[in-house]
Amino acid sequence: MSGLVLDPVLVARARELARRAAEPVVELARRHTTVSVERAVLRLAGLTGTDPVTGEGSAGDEQSVGRVPWVNRVVDAVRDQVGLGSGVALPVWHALASGAAPGLQALAEQVGAGTARFSVPAGADAERARDAARDAVAAGIARIDANRTRREELVATLGDPPRRPWIYLIVATGDIHEDIPQAQAAARAGADVIAVIRSTGQSLLDYVPEGATRTGYAGTYATGENFRLMRAALDDVGVELGRYVRLTNYASGLCMPEIAVLAGLERLDMMLNDAMYGILFRDINPRRTFVDQRFSRMVHARAGIIINTGEDNYLTTADAVDEAHTVTVSQLLNETLAKEAGLEDWQLGLGHAFEIDPDVPESFRLELAHALLARSLFPDAPLKWMPPTKHMTGDVFRGYLLDGFFNLAGALTGQGILLVGMMTEAVVTPWLSDRDLALRNVRYVLDAAGNLAEDFAPPAGGFIDRRADTVLREAVDLLGRIADHPEGLIQAIADGTFGITKRSPDGGRGLDGVVATGPDAYNPALELLEREVSRA
Amino acid sequence: MPDGTIVRPYGDTTGDGMVQTSFTLPVPAGPRAEGAALQLAAKMGIEPAMVVHSRAIDSGYTFFVVYGSVRHLVDLDAVRVEERSYPLLSPAEVDAAVRTRLRRKLVVLGACIGTDAHTVGIDAILNVKGFAGEKGLEYHRELEVANLGAQVGVPELVRTARARRADAVLVSQVVTQRDAHLRNTRELAAAFREAMGEARPLLVVGGPRFDPAMAADLGVDKVFGRGTTPGEVASYLVSALLPQEATA
């Protein structure tokens, strides 16, 4: 893949501006923790299950979905008694080291019974609590490491998909026991990556539901048990097919850090994880998002998980030509924040999408220009190529053609991960036959033109080259405006720089879960993960 | 085109009744599956039917494309549709009407309620960008528009509507699993009725799977279905909310 020759000075300037714009956000993340980060620490230490007594926060779903996990109960109790400024590890492992309970699970039950008492230790007691917490969390990280090794072994023995792009298919029934046969059928039909879409409300739940769930809306709850069940099913079908089938879910919303941990513990392979999506599209508080996001990305880095970012969303809400540069800006911000958290290029499934109005003249050439710009700007990142949704009108025949052009653009511009478009987009959740037809569309294009990239070199100064240069220049302008804000990205978002909407640093959901850390704050997971980042 | 009020589907000859359809049966591919497809087609009124394509999906399913002549007749006299009961206005006409007849800005709130995170519908109607070549309601100088975005709670929507003295509340619903759109809409109507009674704002819902004839049943003032444009919504708001022009 030759790609375009971009102006190297402009590219360097774009990266430098992105780094500057993101700097205050990284600083903010270093100085704060959140309830979800602290709950993730307890999950790494092995605390599971729900309080059988409490049931508030019900998702209006079957009983188990609405039950409060122990990790929430413990973090809330610590917060009520001593605050979270020191983190949850010091008070919890101080209580354990003082003999309050024989183990974390038993301590959680004391919290449930209302008898647990927490205090923040100092001096030798603090040292003892830190050591114990580090050991407990290290066990969880060891399991994540073992999963990463296991994935590498499975890929080595079973094999990777025979070609790029990897074919990425969604299942979304709401019922994990329906998802499993659908996912297996999809893998047999050619899918390399299965994504299980989450129940629509989940990103705004401030806890992770537990257990196998059957009652999601337009998707299936992300739970540790659902992850485990689907992972096992895809491993089975992988053996049958002789290729490792990857599993994807969503580390986004209010429980991003915890879901990242669950993904590492259950060997998921890719996670949707965008720096700004929750802020702009879900009205989740910006501070909460950036703190949660940094932690979740450190976990993904360690777990060898590929993140998928959500730039396609900019194009579904705004004009895909006028706003093309916002995709580039977001990709650069996602890249800089991801690298700061320890992710490597091969883990950056930066998103973009085929969303230009097909009635716009030269729309396909414009799509190629945008796709090649991303390819050339991030030559070592897998890039996630998203199908048309906005201009899928219910005319399924035209939609099938549009998806064919989308597939062709993906092949021609060397995209790494291709999300399979459905001709029934905006009509129904995909039927069995829709998926089959969609996969045949992909297969036809890849068989017929998969290597066409080799012959495709848009000339310098031609339409595609000029368009890519224009978009890159617009992106640099916007990045400059963001970097010049005194508080960088956060203030830029508040001012509506991204066009879509204005989001104040103090607005949105989840701000009450953000806590400034004190001088004695201790997060054993961060310590263990940061050690890894600095080694890299 | 034939005259008269009885028509049949048109393939390439008047009265040929030709239709094409596709479906999947949970039957392994083979002659028995094709027979099953023909049986279904016959029960759908397609007779004679031709299975022009069949293909195995996974191991236990077969996908069919069927062509054939449908024996049913369409009686145009018996067709009932909800005709638009208000004139379609241009953006300039909408603004002029608000300016001269309301003499203040018309306040419009929009949101997706329930767990629905798909804001494409409400955004298409409200965002300046608009839809189908028509600018959204935010484009109107005389409309004061607030788009509350996704997953707005009904109580919050009622509170905001009251605080902002909204004239109209627009709600879009895309997710329809288990009829969530209908349930959410009824909840919306009930909440506004309870909180504000007769003083409630005009309630307008829309989404691709709504039946426009359901407004009364759902307890709202207007239901918009698939393909609704911002201009239609703006025109409706003018006709429903503004005092009628004095006719000579």
TrEMBL record, chain A:
InterPro entries per record: Cbl-dep_enz_cat, Lys-AminoMut_A, Lys-AminoMut_asu_sf
Annotated Gene3D superfamilies: D-Lysine 5,6-aminomutase alpha subunit (3.20.20.440)
Pfam families for this protein: Lys-AminoMut_A
Domain of life from the UniProt record: Bacteria
Domain D-Lysine 5,6-aminomutase alpha subunit intervals: 5-528
A Gene Ontology molecular function term of the record: cobalamin binding
Protein name as annotated: Lysine 2,3-aminomutase
Protein's organism: Geodermatophilus sabuli
Highest classification ranks of the organism: Bacteria, Bacillati, Actinomycetota, Actinomycetes, Geodermatophilales
TrEMBL record, chain B:
Any matching Pfam family: B12-binding
Residue span(s) of domain B12-binding: 105-248
Gene3D superfamilies tied to this protein: Cobalamin-binding domain, D-lysine 5,6-aminomutase beta subunit KamE, N-terminal domain
Listed GO MF terms: cobalamin binding; metal ion binding; protein dimerization activity
InterPro entries the UniProt entry points to: Cobalamin-bd, Cobalamin-bd_sf, KamE_N, KamE_N_sf
Residue runs in coiled coils: none
Identification of the protein by name: Lysine 2,3-aminomutase
